[in-house]
Amino acid sequence: MILNIARKELKSLFASPMGWTILALLMALLGNFYLTGVNKYFEVMSGAVRPAERVGVTIFVGQTVFGIARYIMLFAVPLLTMRLISEERRNQTLPFLFSAPISLTEIVLGKFVGLIIFLSILIVYIFMMLVTLNIWSDIDFGYLLANSFGLWLLLGSFSALGIYFSSLTKQPIIAAILSFISLFALIFLESMFASDPNHWFAYISLMKHFQSFSRGMIDTSDLIYFFLFISTFLTLTIRRLDAERLRG
Prior knowledge:
Blueprint: H1 2-15, H2 17-46, H3 57-81, H4 86-90, H5 94-99, H6 104-131, H7 141-166, H8 172-192, H9 206-214, H10 220-247
Helix pairs in contact: 1-2, 1-6, 2-3, 2-6, 3-7, 3-8, 6-7, 6-10, 7-8, 7-9, 7-10, 9-10
């Protein structure tokens, strides 16, 4: 049933101009930064005479693309999550979901999985784009896989939080604004406490836990953080809808 709901959400995304527009714009932007990174690499490395000053093409271009991707998604994901539940409430179709022979857990997970599949298209696009560097240079596939996996977890966290805010209101634009403000705060918490990096606020920064992936490493503690973050907000969404269903 989860997959059926996920399929329905995917069809809804691709049936609307907004889904195609966001996908096309993101691909165009990321492709542009990829080309910019490649051109910049040749410019910088041509002036790096000493071997110690040289940087691998995978890291140089990968940092450019993955670095900008996480900030672009900060704006894109709230636009995609804002309608998932709030639009159901605004169109008064939420009671039909409540009365359907499926659990609230299946509803929420189905919507979440559908969005993650959509976002995974972009992650695969980024990965395949960077793999083309292998045509003329040896690249670090481990670095690309770690960054892709980290970005996937980061977007999963964005989506879980966005779905939660979508469950709080019937106005999609309000859900998008609340999601963006919350994500912005969670991403830049680390920089806010740069003078005290050991402050506990810094440890809940999403970007702090993405850093190990961006260096090509996978840390178990970061995996646990993202798992707990995603499961927490999905659980809060389920409880919010359950409370609304009980109120009638």
